Amino acid sequence: MTTAIQRPTRPPFYRDVTVLKWVFQIVFLIGIVVAFWILGSFAVENLAKQNLAVSWDFMSRPVGFQVAEGFTTLPESGFQALLVGITNMLRVTISGILAATILGILVGVSRLSHNWLVNKLATVFIETIRNIPLLVQIVFWGIVVSIIPDLVVDETSDGSLKSLFGLRILPEGWVFASPKGFALPWFVPTEGRWQWVGFMLIGALVTRYVYRWRIGLQEAGKAEARAFLWSGGVLVLFAIVGIYAHPIMGIFGPIFGFIAAFFMNTPLILFQIALALVVVGGAYYIIKKRLDELRTPAGLGKLSDDDWFRLAMAALVAGALALFFFLQPGFVRATVGQGTIFGQDIGLSQFFTGLENRFSFVSGAPFDFSLPALDGRFNNYSTEAGHIITRAYFALWVGVVLYTAAFIGEAVRAGVLAVPKGQSEAGFAVGLKRSQLLRMIVLPQAFRIILPPVGNQYLNLAKNTSLGIAVAYPDIVQVGQTIFNQTGQTIPIVISWMAWYSFVSLTLSAIVNRWNKKLKLVER
Amino acid sequence: MADDGAFVETIELAPELPPSGPVQWIRENLTYSVASTIITVVVGLVVVFGLRGLIGWFLDPFRKWSSVTANARLLMVQAYPAEQFSRVWISVGIVVVLAGLSAAAWRVAGKVSVGQITKAIMGIGSALLLIALLAPGEFSGGRGLLAVIGLVIALAGYGLKRSNRETINDPTISTVGLAAVILVLIAAALWIVKLPVQEVFADGTKEVTNQLLARSTKLPWTILIGVLALSYAIGVAIRDAIPSLRRILVVLWTLSFPVILMVVMRAPDIDWGTVLSVDLPIFLVLGALIGYILYVIGAPDTGEWKYIFSALWLAFSVAWVLFGWYLFDTNSSSPFHITAPAADVLQRLEFKFSMILGAIFALAAPSFGGAKAARIRYVGIWLAALFALIASFRLSAVPSELVLGGSAFVGGLSLTFTLAIAAIVLSFPLGVLLALGRASSMPIIRMISTAYIELVRSVPLITWLYIGSNLLNLFLAGVVDIFSVVRAIIAMTLFSAAYLAENVRGGLQSIPKGQYEAADAVGMSVVQKTVLITLPQALKAVIPALVGQVIALFKDTSLVSIIGLFDLLYIARNVVPGQSANLGSIMELTVAAAVIYWIFTFTFSRSSMRLERRLGLGTR
After folding, report:
1. Domain that holds residue A27
2. What number is the ipTM of this complex?
3. By the CB < 8 Å criterion, does A117 face chain B?
4. Considering only CB atoms, which chain A residues are within 8 Å of B454?
């Protein structure tokens, strides 16, 4: 009795799915590359017709325009102009995220309120804001500021705003309002602020330690935690003590100086080798991790196409980066600060030199309270005193904050409603009060559901700041547009935009994902 | 007598009604605790002062609302030629007819309870009363009258509600009747309401007077309301006779947008001689020839030669287009351009693209062929697709009859709609392909799709619009000159496709593995599995997300005003306030634009919520 066990023979190549798939993919890739190559050649040809060539020269050359606001209004180079745009964009994004989160939570909670009036007000707010394009809202707020009457300064008035909604509550000289924007009193940072911030960073570390210590005590059953009270108290203590004690942070100055000198004086080749080692090591780690995942007790399983591709890509990218560090030493040189990037000295070495100069035992309060002032001429605010909120900044900020808050409010509401009802009932059953129930049972679980959509809204807020161009807010898009109107260098500007926004998106989503992961681990 | 107990009369008591009334309502909803009372008072004060300011602003005699009413036509369709304006009405009419028929076919009519209606009446009455009481300024006779009317309406509503409470079952009335009453009221209002119009006299003085609507506005709208009612009635009459009415309507809705845009609004000047001598022969010859080939290829058991044949055919036609360079012979092949490209170039292109379409159909034929009936249906689809291709080539090539003041024949709200619909329709296939690419097992395809999706999503739309308006012409200048509206459509399509792909991917991930395995078990090919099993389920699961994206895209169209396209916002913000008669009215116009956007977006989102409930999504 013979059983003919036939080993499956490999099909001919034109019927082999693996082969066909690879052929298809390679043809597709070639097609895309060819298409881009053709388009690129057209672009070069068309630029040549206009006597232009793609060049990044404008980045190091002086620009002939003024930026409306930012850390400098007269940028020295195209690169610095774009940097001003970037910092302006970050200013709106960071403060906007904070404000939108607070307002959004308030709206979401109001939407869940049993109070009819509060509930309906929140609903009207959400339905109005969500259904009108953000651009229209930004334009609207810009117009609102522009119809404020001009400042009037005479014998009886210094021009400042004294009454709000008919109530005379504001002291004279504190708040100014005009079509140019608003001027408010502000804590203007002094030279000592960096030392104070450093002191607060140490305070934050200590606070974290205190928080964990209290939680640990409670878990061991030794004491009631009151962790928020303890850690909050420590942080406040640090802030107050820091006002007087911050000069001791000056001892870090020489350390920063040493680091700066290290970056400046170590031979470049060492950095190149170190960086190459880092990327190659990273690739090795990724490949090893993947292989370990695939390894079974019976040995290494068969690698699929996909696995091969991933491993090859990891190795390829690492190799390419390592080669790049050696073949293009300018990049590494600029990064460590031994060379310039677009004519600017902004490497690591310069960064630490800056820190060294700022941590130099300066004493005095880290912040000065300063009232706004007029700039001699009427209707202009002094840039030295107080804090100026320009018309464009106000319009963009209010627009994105309200818009994002409406969406965050809906996410908060959905998240709270998504917590199973049994959880609340169980909480009531063990005798928790309503406030305790919310704090200990519902909100922690809702937070896990709320975080992903809210993270998305943060991303949207960051991207939506680009609409500031409608009210001439000088963010990176507006500045970039001005540059390409002047120089005709569209392609480099577009590349800068893409690079910057991709960086912001990747960073934000990395933060949100990390947080998300941390919360997920708690689950089971 | 007392102890026989045989007959105990039980009296059915009506269930006791819970205590109610305004006082009880306030106690339960506004002042149920100390904290809530304080909050109610504070928020109430804020609301009262806020409303007072808002009403005062709207009724301020300095507001130039005449700038909005006088420019309504400009805001809607920019400067569409007056002598051809009936085309605009026909376009609206097509939508209205389809809406009426669809309302009947999908049986949207339902019941609405009297309780809800009384609530609405009370709301309207209280709103009128509030406006009369809160408006700042002198209390005049007109306001007193308004207050009395509001009070009467609110009390009437309340009385109805009380009397309705006595009946145990809340009676209902049909929504159709309610809609009819509202439509009649609107039609009557069109002929009665007076709106402010600014007149400029010969000596330069201006005067704002309240005038009735122009006949050219109220007559068409009245007719349209009648048409809506009529088409609904027709729909009700035929919906039982024609079982496939819904399917027919879906096809008609799909066709309506291109027909309205390219035929009705653009008013093509078609040369029928060319159509008969060029397009018809191409259609007949290719239709019959390729139709026959498809019929043969679609038959089961014809081996793998058919794949090789179709692949070679596709490669040949693509190469013919690309390397014949005829694609790049012309300087204008834009559907929005008034001039036409050289005729012979267009004919060759038309022929070659038909060949490509045929090759794609041939490649898919084995997946959708089979039995004779299936193959005949497939050939029918091929003919329809070929007709659509040839018709769109011809329609976009011929010049327009319109004599335009501006650059495009769509502007204002019509441009907003054109951009939104075109972008969502065009991005749909691209988005689905990208989603399939990202979920594919082929690494290079997946890498390219992922890179595209992530790059596009991380960069804001305004950047893509700048790329569209500045770079597209740089890449293609001298090859094809793309008109600005088309550039914006291309940018928005590419942008929207990435978001759509992510939504569809979510749907694909939600499909149980068993579905794939079952499809494999019955021996389906990859194409069959995707088109017949996974995609339909995935798309159904993500309908809410897709509608959300349509709404987002509609709002995003306002961004084209930044790159200088004449959409609703641009006309409201830059065009009308620039007219000498309307200086200083930018605030009113921006608010009007916001209201127009709000009406559409709010309606969309409410209907999508109803759609979700109808489909039973989110309840599983």
Report:
1. 13-53
2. 0.87
3. yes
4. 502
Cβ–Cβ gap B29/A470 under 8 Å: no
* Total domains in the fold of chain A: 3
Is there a domain that residue A183 lies in? Answer: no
CA pair distance A482, A485, nearest whole angstrom: 5
CATH number for position A412: 1.10.3720.10
Does residue A39 sit in the same domain as residue A125? Answer: no
pTM of structure: 0.88
Contact yes or no for B562 and A469 at CB 8 A: yes
Domain annotation covers residue A216: yes
Which residues numbered 331-360 in B keep a CB inside 8 Å of some CB on A? none
Minimal C-alpha gap between B75 and chain A (Å): 15
Rounded CA separation A151/A379 (Å)? 6
CB-CB: which of B444, B479, B598 is closest to A42?
Answer: B479
Token output for B355 = 């060949």
CB contact set of A462 (below 8 Å; sequence gap of 6+): A89, A93, A97, A501, A504, A505, A508
Please give, rounded to a whole number of angstroms, the shortest distance from the CA of B540 to a CA of chain A: 22
B57: exposed, middle or buried (Cβ count in 10 Å: 0-12, 13-18, 19+)? middle
Residues A347 and A432 in one domain: no
**Of the partner residues A45, A117, A464, the one whose CB lies closest to the CB of residue B44:** A117
pLDDT by position in tens, chain A (length 524): 455 566 667 777 777 778 888 888 998 999 899 888 888 887 888 888 887 888 888 888 888 888 888 888 888 888 999 999 999 999 999 999 999 999 999 999 899 888 889 999 999 999 999 999 999 999 999 999 988 887 777 666 777 777 766 667 777 778 888 888 888 888 888 888 888 888 999 999 999 999 888 888 888 877 777 778 888 999 999 888 888 888 888 888 889 999 999 988 888 889 999 999 999 999 999 888 888 888 777 777 777 777 888 888 889 999 999 999 888 888 888 888 888 777 777 888 888 988 888 888 888 788 888 888 777 655 677 777 788 899 999 999 999 999 999 999 999 999 999 888 899 899 989 988 877 888 888 888 888 889 889 999 999 999 999 999 999 999 999 999 999 888 888 889 999 999 999 999 999 989 988 888 887 755 44
A36: contact with B, CB 8 A cutoff: no
B58 close contact with A: CB closer than 8 A: no
Task: Note which residues in 10-29 of chain A have CB less than 8 A from chain B.
Answer: 15, 21, 24-26, 28-29
A45, A95: one domain: no
Q: Are residues A47 and A101 in the same domain?
A: no
Radius of gyration of chain B (CA): 30
Assess B30–A contact: CB distance below 8 Å, yes or no.
yes
Pairing of strands B194-200, B206-212: antiparallel
Q: Both A200 and A251 in a single domain?
A: yes
The angle that helices B343-368 and B280-297 make with each other, rounded to 10 degrees, is 20
Ordered by where they begin, the domains of chain B are 272-295+304-359+374-384 (no CATH), 411-566 (1.10.3720.10)
CA distance A473 to A285: 45
Tell me which residue of B459, B455, B487, B495 sits closest to B471, measured CA to CA.
B487
Facing residue for B558 by CB, picked from A46, A131, A135: A135
Query: Would you call B573 an interface residue with chain A, using a CB distance cutoff of 8 Å?
Result: yes
Question: Which residues neighbour A87 within 8 Å (Cβ) at sequence distance 6 or greater?
Answer: A70, A71
Pick A494's closest partner by Cβ from B457, B471, B591: B471
Boundary-marking domain end, from A309, A334, A358: A358
β-partners of residue B207 are B199
Q: Considering the domain boundaries, does residue A3 fall inside one?
A: no
Indicate whether A241 and A341 sit together in one domain: yes
Is residue A348 domain-shared with residue A401, that is, in the same domain?
no
Residues A35 and A101 in one domain: no
- Residue A352 maps to a domain: yes
d(CA B346, CA B326): 9
- Dihedral of CA A148/A152/A153/A159: which sign? negative
